[in-house]
Each structure stands twice: as structure tokens, then as C-alpha cells.
């Protein structure tokens, strides 16, 4: 039995995961991300202890603990080197948790952990597997020959920060034109907002008013109902997503690419046009094509992947 912890900007989630990668108990607590790293780490430890109690187990039943954290992670030393939205920079997270829980802790980048989780459960043993998560940003994890690819320094596999438009939108990483500034849910919301302003009275405007906000679903729901302005937003967004995927395919020609994140719940409505665009623009015309799928583990991928990566 393992514990997997998913450290997010909003919630800290943890689960007890068995050898088969099934979660047998899980719990979450708010991250309250402006707190010090010490406070967050003691909350993670409390969460883990509570989970073990809840499952009727003791800490001696747990072999190892795996934790996924956003940012650049030194997995060798278990240090969070650079974290965008938490006060974790330079914090020896694994060591601190080991001290509190008296258990070996393996620290991994959160997107890598999620990709590894999805790979372990639904990867069908693909030799090369890439998961792309369309969320607040565009996260990604690359699994080659069953192993997480991290680059020589742990900062590798940040596909969301490849350039889609030279000199384009300013990204949170400081560079301009990153893929995630066009293909993330944050970007989709901005694209939807702009279209609402340009098309007063559109169904998007009505849906946003009913729900009290513009979300990643606004344009998709309105497009499905036939709203022309919304269809234009969705078509453009799909093209941004698919154009980036073509580059990923051209570099890696991976056996499988899985799309995760909230927007992947749109299922075939997102996947089919992406697939069509990728097929039409793939450099490879003569060999078998990369299989494109939507993720199936959703929020649990991070917990399961962190736990299984600790094995
Ligand atoms: Zn960037």
C-alpha cells in the first residue's frame, strides 16, 4: 500500500493506493496557498495520518509515500526548486514530510505524476506515452519505455511552454507566445469573453449570465446548441489545441497521446476535430499514427501516479 499526494494550488488531495493502482481511501483539504511551506507540509502530514486512520490501517501498512507538486522538481533530492503559485521554492519537501511521517517520500512534478498514473492504468503498455492536461495552464508528462522523462535537470517535458505564436500572448513563465496561452482553459475563457463582447446577445452571453460566470464550458455548450459565434470560438480553440499536438506528434511520434483536464470531458466533441486536424497535418504519412484519447482518471490521476511513481 502507498499514499499518493497531489499538491495543488487550491486543494491538497491524498489517497491510499494499492499495488493495482486503485484508491481505497481519499481525502482533501484546502491548500490556502499564501501560507508558509511549513504550514502546508504539516497539513499534508495530518492529511496522510487521517487517511490511514480512516482506512483502518496503521502507518506500518504503508510502504512509501509519493507526492506530486507543481513546478520544477529535483526528484533526486526531493526538493521543490521552483514553484509558480506556492511558497515552496527551494523547500526540501520530501525530507520535511519524511521527518514528520517517518516514511520514505518520493517527490515528482505533478503533471508527470498524473501522466504516470494514467499510463499505469490505461497506457496499455505503450512504449511512448504523453499526457497533455488542458487546465489553468497546459501541463504535460512524457513517459518513455515506462519511465517518466524529466530532462537531465528535472525541468523537461514542459510542452505547454513551447511557442505556438512567435511574439504572441504573454505567458506566466515570462515568455511570449507559449502554447498554454492559447490552449489552456484560462485562454479559452479569455477567447469566450472576447467573443461575447463582439457578439452581444449570443447564447454564450445568456449561458454566462445564467451561470454567473464564463467557464471553459460556455462556448462548448453554446456551440452544441447551434450558436454561430460560439462555434467560431470552439473551432479556433480546437485549432490551437490541435496545432500544438501536431508539433508534439512530429517531435515524438508517440504511441499514445492522452488529453486530460476539465475540457477533456467534452469527449468526442473535442477529440474528433482535434484528431482530424492532427491526421491532416501529421508529418508522418506512411507509418502507423499516434493514438489520441481522452484521459479517464481525471482528478485521481495525480494521486495514483504519485503513489505508483514512489514504488
Ligand atoms: Zn510559458
N-to-C CA distance: 10 Å
CATH superfamily of the largest domain: ATPase, nucleotide binding domain
Strand order of the largest sheet: 3-2-1-4-7
Q: Estimate the strand proportion.
A: 15-25%
Describe this structure in words.
The chain is globular. It folds into 2 domains: 2-116 and 300-309, Nucleotidyltransferase, domain 5 (2-Layer Sandwich); 124-294, Nucleotidyltransferase, domain 5 (2-Layer Sandwich), CATH 3.30.420.40. The longest helix has 25 residues, at 228-252. Helix 1 (37-54) crosses helix 2 (93-101) and helix 5 (185-198) runs antiparallel to helix 8 (228-252). The model has no long low-confidence stretch (mean pLDDT 96). The termini are close together. Strands 3-2-1-4-7 form a 5-stranded mixed sheet, sandwiched between helices. By secondary structure, it is of the alpha/beta class. The protein contains 10 helices and 12 strands. The structure holds zinc ion (ZN). The site of zinc ion (ZN) has 5 residues, from loops.
Give short descriptive properties of this protein.
alpha/beta, five-stranded mixed sheet, Nucleotidyltransferase, domain 5, globular, single chain, 2 domains, binds zinc ion, 311 residues
Give the topology:
Blueprint: E1 2-7, E2 11-17, E3 23-30, H1 37-54, E4 64-69, E5 72-74, E6 79-82, H2 93-101, E7 105-109, H3 110-122, E8 128-134, E9 138-144, E10 147-148, H4 180-183, H5 185-198, H6 203-211, H7 218-224, H8 228-252, E11 256-260, H9 268-281, E12 291-294, H10 300-309
Parallel strand pairs: 1-4, 4-7, 8-11, 11-12
Antiparallel strand pairs: 1-2, 2-3, 5-6, 8-9, 9-10
The chain binds zinc ion.
